[in-house]
Amino acid sequence: MDRWSKRTRAVQAGIRRSRFGEMSEAIFLTQGFAYGSAEEAEARFLEAGPDEFIYARYGNPTTAMFESRMAAIEGTEDAFATASGMAAVSGALLGVVRAGDRVVAARALFGSCLYVLEEVLPRFGVETVFVDGTDMDQWAEAVTPGTRAVFFETVSNPTLEVVDIAAVAGIAREAGALVLADNVFATPVFSRAAELGADVVIYSTTKHVDGQGRALGGVVLGSRAFVRRTLEPFMKHTGGAMSPFTAWLMLKGLETMDLRVRAQAETALTLARALEERGVRVLYPGLPSHPQHALALAQTGSGGTVLSFDLGSRERAFAFLNALRIVTISNNLGDAKSIATHPATTTHQRLPQDQKDRLGIGPGLVRLSCGLEAPEDLLADVTEALDGLP
Fold it and tell me: What's the pTM?
C-alpha cells in the first residue's frame, strides 16, 4: 500500500470481504455481536482482536473499513469515525484535556469550534488562549511549557487564512503540547498535515468525503496509541461513534473523492480569478494576492474548493445571493452542488460584532463552495448575479 497513491487508497484500502466475496463493501447494520460461548464473550471483553467486535458504539466491521481507509489516505496509524464533524472536534479536545490544562488555539475558527473552546472547556477548568493563527510570534509566546494542546483550522472558515503547520508543530513540540489540526478546507486529497507535524488530524466527513449532502460524519486520525488509548475510551463511553450505514456512505464517497475535489478546486480557481479581474476583493489561497499563497501551495499544492469575497455591504451580498440561479444558498461546503453562504448572518451569526470585525467577517462577505457543475455555467451564474448589483 505504501506504493499506492491517495486516489488508489481511497478506492482499495481497508476492504474486509465476507465469505461471499462482495465487490461493494458490506453494511453490517447491527448494534451487537454474538459469541459462541460465555468464555469467548469474556475473552473478547478482556481484549478484542482486530476482527472481533463487541458493540457498534465501540466498533463495527463497516466502520472499521472506513477508519482503515481514512488512515491509509491521511498517512496515520489509525482513525476513529464519529457521528459528526463537531463530535470529532469536541471528542478530540475533551478526550485529551483535564482540569487545570491549557489549550492554545487560533482565533479564526468555525463558530461551533469557538463555542467548545470558549464555553465548554472553561466549565471544566481548562484554560483556552487565542492567538492570531498566522502570527508565529503569538504562538511562541502563548504556547508555554505545560500547554496540553494547540488547536487550529489549517485553512480557516470563512476567511481562508492558512496556518503554517510545520512552524506551529515545532513550537508545540518544544513545549510538549499535542497538535490538533482541523483539516476540512485542505481536504484529505490535498492534505499533508500529518507529514508536516500534526499529531491529530480532524475532518468533518460531511464535507468532501461524503461530498453529496447525504450524511453527517467525522473522523479523528493519529497514532494508534492516541486513537485507541486516549480517544477511543472517551468516544465509546460518551456515544459519539459513527453509525455503520453512515460509514458505508462515506466509503462510497471516498471512491470518487479525488476526482470530485480536484474538479471543484479547478472551478474555484477559475471563479476566483474571474472575480478578482472584476475588481472584487477575493480571499482564495490559490491566488497570488492571498497573503499565505506560497504557504498554501507548499502545504497542499492547491487553493482548495472554497473561496470567499467581499461585496461591501449586507444589502449587496443579499442581492447577489438572491440573484443566483445555479448556486444554492445553504451553509454546508464540499458538496457536489455549489453552495453560497453569508457567514455574518448564518454560520458565524452568534459571534459578537467585535469578534466578527477582528476575524474579517464583514457584512459583505460571501463564502462560495464550488460544486461539480460545469465551470462555465457557474461563472455565468456568478457574473450575472454581480451584473445586477446596485
Answer: 0.95
